[in-house]
């Protein structure tokens, strides 16, 4: 007997919200496939896992040995993503689906995006099981029309390596409150959430302790967790994760202790990378070297920007719930779910924002973990407003909700368009592939700006490596990331024997009149805003990167200067 229309509709309502996050996160990966320097540690570690494996005999070839960065981070997230990526990359290469290392980078990012989407779907299914399909649909709609989390879900920033586990922890805590499950199952879910959140804070982002501890306190206050269980779960998550991860981190970081740019010289500083990073950035004040923001930055700038319409909806939801609790208005059954969320997560979210506001260096991604909380409360509010009890005002409420979603979409579309042009360094490999490389082993030097804006080990496509997870290359090129400023001058680059220099446009003036070098390619990016007509604004494109080739070599492409 064929399924009825009602059954098909029910299946579609259940299945479609699971597919939307995967599609949205993946779309953002394809629209902006390149990465910034902030993502490079984990991304390059994944590359090295794929290229060299975990053998100690290959450790000297890992990128961090030559470029260790400012502080140590745990390699465990990169190892996990690398192990997930290896068989898929090898299979895709053997089937001819992946042809370049840039394709492997996209594949790696897609895997991370799918992991993030899976954890998001776990939370959305929890909302459906506990509060109904309509709350889940609003949660998915509000979350997927935002810009920051969908755009960064497939990026290897430490915060977005941690966010999937934070989301999964939230889901387990909410799922523990389903009334139909046995008490043992409920207790086990809370215990798992504490273990997971503690391990994530210990290994990936230690600032999550400011979220974890108040959440544990809230669960203790409302009788959902015992002190003994909290201590055991915290010990298992914290010490257990260190016992697993510390040997890997110690072995992988050990060669950097003698590096002149690495500010640490003790094995003890490598056992727990997150604690070392916290000491260096917070207690030694090194985070301020990256700039400081006023205490109100998160409240006035970051949270409204990353939450968009969810922030006012969440604020309204809190007001409605408090008003109902005080009997100022008739309590709304739909808003009762907001009570569960606020009891579990409100204290933790507030403490995280408060603690991070006390630190001078601020970035929106440091508090991104509270956005799912806002989105959940906003979903309750939207569901309530869509079924507003005063029928005469219901159409107005629905128009307002549609308008808020449209504002989300407009902001996201504009931000995605701008961001897609914000990675000029990632486009350089296209120019290099179009050039008739003279000589058996051309030497290509990258100045700082291209490395900051998209160039990665995956875009260095002609490094000879024997790995099933990376496409083989017939021609061997030598890539330089040296910070020697002498190489940024025409004479210095010539005397160093470079064949090509990937040059920041701001440095081009000193190269413009030289006879030793020619422009062989340019990469454009977005420039300044300009007015179009009376009401519209547009952005001009301008050259961000010049690729310079030696004048004494056959460096020009068949069509002259190559533009991308």
Automatic annotation (TrEMBL):
<feature type="transmembrane region" description="Helical">
    <location>
        <begin position="229"/>
        <end position="253"/>
    </location>
</feature>
<dbReference type="GO" id="GO:0052917">
    <property type="term" value="F:dol-P-Man:Man(7)GlcNAc(2)-PP-Dol alpha-1,6-mannosyltransferase activity"/>
</dbReference>
<feature type="transmembrane region" description="Helical">
    <location>
        <begin position="306"/>
        <end position="329"/>
    </location>
</feature>
<feature type="transmembrane region" description="Helical">
    <location>
        <begin position="135"/>
        <end position="153"/>
    </location>
</feature>
<feature type="transmembrane region" description="Helical">
    <location>
        <begin position="366"/>
        <end position="386"/>
    </location>
</feature>
<feature type="transmembrane region" description="Helical">
    <location>
        <begin position="398"/>
        <end position="418"/>
    </location>
</feature>
<feature type="transmembrane region" description="Helical">
    <location>
        <begin position="75"/>
        <end position="94"/>
    </location>
</feature>
<dbReference type="Pfam" id="PF03901">
    <property type="entry name" value="Glyco_transf_22"/>
</dbReference>
<feature type="transmembrane region" description="Helical">
    <location>
        <begin position="194"/>
        <end position="222"/>
    </location>
</feature>
<comment type="pathway">
    <text>Protein modification; protein glycosylation.</text>
</comment>
<feature type="transmembrane region" description="Helical">
    <location>
        <begin position="341"/>
        <end position="360"/>
    </location>
</feature>
<keyword id="KW-1133">Transmembrane helix</keyword>
<dbReference type="GO" id="GO:0006487">
    <property type="term" value="P:protein N-linked glycosylation"/>
</dbReference>
<keyword id="KW-0472">Membrane</keyword>
<keyword id="KW-0328">Glycosyltransferase</keyword>
<comment type="function">
    <text>Mannosyltransferase that operates in the biosynthetic pathway of dolichol-linked oligosaccharides, the glycan precursors employed in protein asparagine (N)-glycosylation. The assembly of dolichol-linked oligosaccharides begins on the cytosolic side of the endoplasmic reticulum membrane and finishes in its lumen. The sequential addition of sugars to dolichol pyrophosphate produces dolichol-linked oligosaccharides containing fourteen sugars, including two GlcNAcs, nine mannoses and three glucoses.</text>
</comment>
<keyword id="KW-0808">Transferase</keyword>
<protein>
    <recommendedName>
        <fullName>Mannosyltransferase</fullName>
        <ecNumber>2.4.1.-</ecNumber>
    </recommendedName>
</protein>
<feature type="transmembrane region" description="Helical">
    <location>
        <begin position="12"/>
        <end position="31"/>
    </location>
</feature>
<keyword id="KW-0256">Endoplasmic reticulum</keyword>
<dbReference type="InterPro" id="IPR005599">
    <property type="entry name" value="GPI_mannosylTrfase"/>
</dbReference>
<keyword id="KW-0812">Transmembrane</keyword>
<dbReference type="GO" id="GO:0005789">
    <property type="term" value="C:endoplasmic reticulum membrane"/>
</dbReference>
<comment type="similarity">
    <text>Belongs to the glycosyltransferase 22 family.</text>
</comment>
């Amino acid at each position: 007997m064929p399924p009825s229309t009602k059954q098909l509709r029910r299946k579609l309502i259940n299945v479609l919200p699971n597919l939307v996050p995967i599609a949205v996160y993946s779309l953002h990966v394809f629209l902006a496939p390149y990465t910034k320097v902030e993502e490079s540690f984990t991304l390059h570690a994944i590359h090295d896992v794929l290229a060299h494996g975990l053998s100690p005999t290959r450790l000297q070839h890992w990128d961090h040995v030559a470029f260790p960065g400012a502080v140590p981070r745990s390699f465990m997230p990169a190892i996990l993503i690398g192990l997930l990526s290896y068989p898929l990359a090898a299979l895709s290469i053997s089937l001819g689906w992946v042809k370049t290392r840039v394709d492997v980078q996209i594949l790696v990012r897609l895997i991370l995006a799918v992991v993030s989407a899976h954890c998001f779907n776990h939370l959305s299914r929890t909302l459906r099981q506990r509060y109904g399909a309509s709350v889940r649909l609003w949660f998915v709609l509000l979350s997927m029309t935002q810009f920051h989390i969908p755009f960064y879900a497939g990026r290897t920033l430490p915060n977005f390596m941690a966010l999937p586990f934070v989301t999964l922890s939230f889901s387990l805590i909410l799922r523990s409150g389903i009334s139909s499950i046995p008490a043992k199952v409920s207790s086990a879910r809370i215990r798992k959430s504490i273990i997971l959140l503690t391990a994530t804070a210990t290994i990936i982002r230690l600032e999550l302790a400011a979220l974890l501890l108040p959440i544990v306190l809230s669960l203790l206050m409302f009788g959902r967790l015992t002190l003994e269980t909290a201590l055991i779960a915290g010990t298992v998550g914290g010490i257990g994760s260190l016992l697993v991860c510390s040997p890997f981190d110690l072995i992988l970081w050990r060669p950097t202790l003698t590096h002149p740019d690495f500010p640490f010289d003790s094995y003890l500083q490598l056992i727990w990378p997150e604690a070392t990073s916290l000491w260096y950035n917070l207690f030694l004040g090194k985070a301020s070297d990256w700039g400081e923001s006023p205490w109100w930055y998160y409240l006035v700038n970051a949270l409204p920007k990353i939450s968009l319409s969810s922030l006012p909806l969440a604020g309204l939801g809190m007001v409605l719930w408090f008003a109902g609790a005080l009997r100022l208005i008739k309590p709304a059954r739909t808003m009762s779910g907001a009570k569960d969320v606020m009891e579990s997560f409100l204290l933790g979210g507030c403490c995280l924002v408060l603690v991070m506001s006390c630190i001078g260096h601020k970035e929106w991604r440091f508090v991104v973990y509270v956005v799912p909380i806002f989105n959940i409360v906003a979903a309750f509010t939207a569901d309530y407003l869509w079924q507003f009890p005063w029928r005469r005002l219901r159409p107005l409420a629905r128009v307002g909700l549609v308008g808020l979603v449209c504002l989300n979409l407009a902001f996201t579309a504009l931000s995605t368009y701008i961001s897609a042009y914000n990675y000029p360094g990632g486009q350089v490999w296209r120019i290099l592939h179009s050039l008739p490389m003279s000589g058996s082993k051309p030497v290509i030097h990258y100045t700082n700006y291209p490395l900051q804006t998209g160039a990665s080990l995956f875009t260095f496509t002609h490094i000879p490596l024997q790995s099933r997870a990376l496409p083989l290359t017939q021609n061997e090129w030598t890539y330089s990331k040296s910070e020697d400023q002498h190489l940024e001058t025409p004479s210095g680059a010539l005397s160093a024997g470079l064949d090509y220099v990937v040059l920041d446009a701001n440095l081009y003036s000193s190269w413009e009149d030289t006879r030793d070098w020619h422009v062989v390619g340019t990469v454009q990016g977005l420039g300044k805003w300009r007015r179009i007509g009376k009401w519209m604004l547009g952005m001009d494109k301008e050259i961000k990167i010049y690729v310079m080739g030696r004048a004494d070599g056959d460096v020009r492409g068949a069509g002259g200067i190559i533009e991308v």
